[in-house]
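step: validate -> pass
step: tokenize input -> pass
step: predict -> running
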Amino acid sequence: MMQSRPCGFDVFSNVSVLLDETGKWRMDLLNQNFTEAEAAAIKKLPHNTRRGGDRWAWSLTSHGGFSVKTAYHVIHSSNPRLSFDEEHSQLWKKIWRMKTLPSTKHFVWRVAKDILPTGEALKRRGVDIDGMCGMCGEEAETGIHAIIGCSSVHPFWSISGLTLVTEIDAEVGFKEWLIMAMAQWGSKDLELFAIAAQKVWERRNKARFGEGIGDISGLWERTMGVWHELNGDTRPRDEQWDKDECARWQPPSWRFLKLNVDASYKEGSTNRTGCIIRDYTGRCLAAQTKRYVMDTTVDIMEALAVFDGLEMATRMSISDIIVEGDSLRVFNLLNGKGTDNTRDANKVAHILAYDHVDFLDDISSSLVWLEDYPPLICNALRSDLLI
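step: predict -> pass
step: emit ->
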């Protein structure tokens, strides 16, 4: 049996100590520290005449480059007690517990389940399309590519400050990638990523349908804005509602829906109406804000708010409805066919009627939501249901 000679080098020595100034092997050191067979094998290795610097290499791949797939297996094998089912169960729990809009949670769930209508997914379902990414044109468009791997979004993720790997292994799906990423993230990082990922996808959809998408760098500022709206009200103190001091919104009987209305009035300025329809559980079915440019009075605006709300209910074929607002005079004039309440119990309609929700342009006269409500509305809805 052939044994190696005792080596005189430190275990952390570099290969460069065996090379001379021209980059060739130093035969004296090879013969001194290795057996004849080992020295002969080393001499056959090509030497680097360019004498480039040392670099980091990933030992788990043959090419030395980092691989998400091998990293995933390392993390998984380092915690053998965590079964496959437990790992994915924890993923779903973290997604549904995020302090984000319901649409954001649902979006992340869809990406993780690989059911986004990406080019590759549609092609797999028999749709006659190219399947390549329309943003970069370099790779097939999968969910993980569209959100993370596309070269068009790399600059965006770089400025986000989130710890994540954008070099994607073709054999690792978004679900496995997210499990690895969440091992390094706190709850805020996960929420910011989820909001940002949804905005990246929305931007992709706009580009797909030929709409203007603008500079991607602005997405992060909007992401932070949404997160702050959901996790801390930035409005002045006199505009905030203290849940301990406010009259609470009361749900209707299960047989009815409730329509809350409000209006804003400022002489010589654009005025608004706001209305929202909810069921007995407090679930929002529809919300609307409408603006008016005309000479009017505060009572007329309050009456228009009732009219706009009932018109929206009629379009939705809703008849059994209770109308609630905060203008006693207007409701008395309407022959008592409705109730009046304090502004604190009418806060969501109040938000819609005032300038808390922005119009997308100067042309539109109304905005209607049937889902994906703005964060400010979601916060108010949530506080109405807190006990």
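step: describe -> Residues 187-208 form the longest helix (22 residues).
step: cleanup -> pass
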